[in-house]
Amino acid sequence: MKQHVLIPAAVLCLLAAGCGTQVEKYQGQTSRDDVENMGLNNEVTMEDENPRSVNKVGHTWGLKQDRELIKTAAQQLEGVAVKRVIMEADQVWVTVDIAGEEDMSEAERQEWKDQVGEAVYKAVPRYDIHVKIK
Fold first, then answer.
1. Could you tell me the end-to-end alpha-carbon distance of the chain, in angstroms, rounded to an integer?
2. Whole-angstrom Cα distance, residue 66 to residue 92?
3. Which residues contact 120 (CB under 8 A, 6 or more apart)?
4. Which of 53, 97, 48, 44 is nearest to 75 (CA)?
5. Where on the tree of life does the source sit, at the highest rank (predicted)?
6. pLDDT (tens digit, 9 = 90+) per residue, 48-60?
7. Considering just the CA atoms, what is the radius of gyration of the chain in Å?
8. Would you tell me how many other CB atoms lie within 10 Å of the CB of residue 58?
């Protein structure tokens, strides 16, 4: 009678020990905490890792970076100085000062506007660019 009780008990203990101890290391196992904390940094902070999130503006993208790209692209043309950049939705107005603009004909002014517009478009093609020479 001892054998009939001991053998099933031993088998049950071995099965229970083998099945239940590796639950945490199972690859598909996720806990509620894992699901709630998805996307958070590994540090103990509440910041997202998404670079386009609102708290990361200014480091990776944004109007400030676009404005700097526009200014740099326009000023790469010799004799061009950017006076103002106005951005509204998908429209950009760039006001530039060009050396010797007083002596230019209307055709030359239009050519300069086209050159500045093209340079800015190459830097930030997502905007409709309007150039004004002042």
1. 107
2. 10
3. 70, 73, 74, 92, 94, 127, 129, 131
4. 97
5. Bacteria
6. 555 545 555 555 5
7. 33
8. 10
Predicted confidence (pLDDT) per residue in 16-65, tens digit:
665 555 555 555 666 777 666 666 655 555 555 555 455 555 555 678 88
- Here the tokens at position 54 are 């609102």
Spatial distance between the Cα atoms of 92 and 131, rounded to a whole number of angstroms: 8
One-letter amino acid of 25: K
- Structure tokens given for 22: 């590796």
Element (H, E) at 33: helix 32-36
Query: Cα 133 from chain centroid?
Result: 33
Pairing of strands 91-98, 80-88: antiparallel
Helix or strand (DSSP H, E) at 133: strand 128-133
Burial of 134 from C-beta contacts in 10 A (0-12 / 13-18 / 19+): exposed
Residue with tokens 């004004």: 132
- CA 107 from centroid of its chain's CA atoms: 41
| E-state strands within 15-111 | 80-88, 91-98
> Scanning the structure block, which residue is given the tokens 């996720």?
30
